[in-house]
Amino acid sequence: MRRNLRTPRAAQAAAAAVVAGTLILTACGGSDKDKDNNSGGKESGGSGSVSLPKLDGASLEVAAVWTGSEQANFKKVLAEFEKRTGAKVTFVPAQDPIINFLGSKIAGGAPPDVALLPQVGAIKQAVDKKWAKPVGSEAQAQLAKNYSQGWQDLGKVDGKQYGVYYKAANKSLVWYNNKVFENAGANEPKTWKDFLATARTVYDSGVTPVSVGGADGWTLTDWFENVYLSQAGPEKYDQLAQHKIKWTDPSVKDALTTLAELWGNKDYIAGGPDGALQTEFPASVTQTFTGGDQPKAGMVFEGDFAQVNIAETKAKVGTDAKVFPFPAVGDKAPVVSGGDAAVILKDSKAAQALATFLASPDAATVQAKLGGYLSPNKGVAPSAYPNAVQQKMAKALIAAGDDFRFDMSDQAPQAFGGTPGKGEWKALQDFLKNPKNVAGTQAKLEADATAAYKG
């Protein structure tokens, strides 16, 4: 379970500067000079900076929920590990919620050696179930060298290091089709009021303003979290994340009412609410950047990882696809971060070596070069990232240190914040369909949260 989750200040937030950095992404094409004017870690290459054992004859299974290009790119990281150690690594596609997937594997006597867990609470749950094994001294040394204390703490349970945060996410971005904006005469908004005005401008030009991947409930929790953090503030955000205040609190009502200003206008959502609820996240991105200047939508909200899906459309980040920070609803723009941590389930020399590799700049540099990825590893050179947009995000992420707020639903018990068709995912899907039902949505959220935190 994820109740009583530790959320130290250091771990409550790496993203403030991530989005602060995106404030300078408004032109976001950048220039080639950006690629040459970097500070940060050394470029990894050749035999790499981390020493790995020879593992000829060893085999490993690594499970994650990643699909498509994200999975393909991570397999290249695993291939580098194979090349350097002689081990054989098999990627095992997992389903959400991954804890349930792992539970069935363990019950069948065939757990993967390592799993990438997308929720902070899932790490604690794996420890509570006695599935997870602490990482060894070599991996801990890499973490101490390459990670801020906040990112290290996110992988700890009761003071022991179980998780290696291999991947970070900036979840406070809105991507837009530049041709649509140019044709409409639309500007990048800085406030929620401006955002709704921009949506109107895009709509008047003949393009539906916003694409929403409502079939994946986690995208809707990200919408809520950004609005709530900006409107209610960080203290309330922390309290709600730990269920120290109820979901019937007036601050939740305010956030849902704000969301309804967009979700309640079916003309502003690609396919309307029903269409959005049938649209998975990857399609919500690709339909924004296909169709030239007449795509299905002009904008799509989601994290830096949307670049993987943008790349599938052949749109170029920085010219065809641009980005602005999630607009400020309150006094400040929100800054929400997420991430995926490697956890060892079968303790072995090979599994520990993989954890060490994933904690090193070597592994992250392989995937950074492929795009659609950010690493909290400060040993990765910004120049490793393929475009100016990501280079600036990477610099800002590292500069942020421990100043960030972590994804709220990822801090909740899985039954509430991380299960398809249940809890927060389902309640917000229902709210997208009927944004007038603010009170009913609050009541459902509170009932589900109470059951999950007690459970």
From TrEMBL:
Source organism of this protein record: Streptomyces siamensis
InterPro entries: Bact_solute-bd_prot1, SBP
Annotated region described as Disordered, given as residue ranges: 30-52
SUPFAM superfamilies to which the protein is assigned, alphabetical: Periplasmic binding protein-like II
Annotated protein name in UniProt: ABC transporter substrate-binding protein
Keyword Transport listed: yes
Coiled-coil zones: none
Keywords assigned: Signal, Transport
Taxonomic lineage of the native organism: Bacteria, Bacillati, Actinomycetota, Actinomycetes, Kitasatosporales
Keyword Signal part of the UniProt annotation: yes
Secretion signal, residue range per the UniProt entry: 1-27
Protein family per UniProt: Belongs to the bacterial solute-binding protein 1 family.
One Pfam family it belongs to: SBP_bac_1
Superkingdom, taxonomy of origin: Bacteria
